Amino acid sequence: MFPRSFEYFAPTSIEDALALLAEHGEDAKVLAGGQSLIPLMKLRFAAPDYIVDINRIQGLDYLEEQDGSLRIGALVRTSDMERSELIASRYPAMAAAAPLISDPVVRNLGTVVGSLCHADPQGDWASVMLAMGAELVCRSATGERRVAIGDLIDGPFTTTLEPNEIATEVHVPDPGAHSFGTYLKLERKVGDFASVGVAVHLALDGDRVERAGIALTAVGAGNIKAKEAEDALAGAVLDDATIDRAASLAAEAADPKTDLRGSADYKREIVRVFVTRALSQAATAKAA
Ligand SMILES: Cc1cc2nc3c(=O)[nH]c(=O)nc-3n(C[C@H](O)[C@H](O)[C@H](O)COP(=O)(O)OP(=O)(O)OC[C@H]3O[C@@H](n4cnc5c(N)ncnc54)[C@H](O)[C@@H]3O)c2cc1C
Known about the structure:
Layout: E1 7-9, H1 14-24, E2 28-31, H2 37-42, E3 50-53, E4 63-66, E5 69-73, H3 78-83, H4 85-90, H5 92-97, H6 104-109, H7 112-118, H8 124-131, E6 135-140, E7 143-148, H9 149-152, E8 153-155, E9 158-159, E10 166-172, E11 179-186, E12 196-205, E13 208-217, E14 224-225, H10 227-233, H11 240-253, H12 264-287
Parallel strand pairs: 1-3, 2-3
Antiparallel strand pairs: 4-5, 5-10, 6-7, 6-10, 8-9, 11-12, 12-13, 13-14
Helix pairs in contact: 10-11, 11-12
Bound molecules: flavin-adenine dinucleotide.
């Protein structure tokens, strides 16, 4: 199917893009990689009157650390994450997730920020960013605010982003001098959306977990932060009993539905197995 007709804007500055959204926000959509928006428009699940394409705006493709925090600009593609030495060396959960997202064509176009703004419960980036305590920087013509990823997601394909706002970057706090991270994904075939995904990030202090982030993909109406599992790990040593307890709490936090990908019980069990696997890897890495 073809999308309904729309007016297309390709501003070259963020100010011009924000002015367009101030004028047309309710009836407009921001276009980044187009890997989610264009299929939705073709299926006519989305039919915006105006498209504000941000791809011609210079300087939104930075991927850098500043004062220890990571900044991912709105035009950083998943393939940029996949190829980045900085991501490979300091952010293992992101490095693990990037190559598991779809295929090279989608990764070359789809942006990290666009994935967060799309809020698909099967989106992989939101779990990684939830586990790492990231925030989205949102700008409108009248100002800027930061929103934690947990407060951004308001339900399936729904966010708290205002129609006049552009998300300009993801801001990820310092992972810690000693940290562990991974992303585990069950997919029916290579490049598929997640049947279940689990992101784990641990800041370590010697033998102990200083801070834990665990988030789940595709097992609820949005990506889920497994808060009770995180709390069970904070300050604890990663022994078998602690790992079992955290994995069980994460499985309890999941709220999966039975569908063609598997039963709810099966998916909840996969969460438990993945969290056990990730935390066991962390314990082994720490001991080595
Ligand atoms: C075949 C296929 C397979 C896929 N498989 C996976 C997968 O395995 N895992 C996964 O996580 N994803 C998958 N995706 C989704 C893909 O990762 C998308 O690229 C991503 O979800 C959206 O990023 P985008 O830059 O393409 O956003 P777009 O499609 O351009 O936009 C998506 C939404 O976000 C809004 N938006 C985008 N950028 C901004 C911004 N800066 N400010 C405000 N609003 C904004 C748009 O208005 C729109 O509502 C797949 C997509 C396809 C087509």
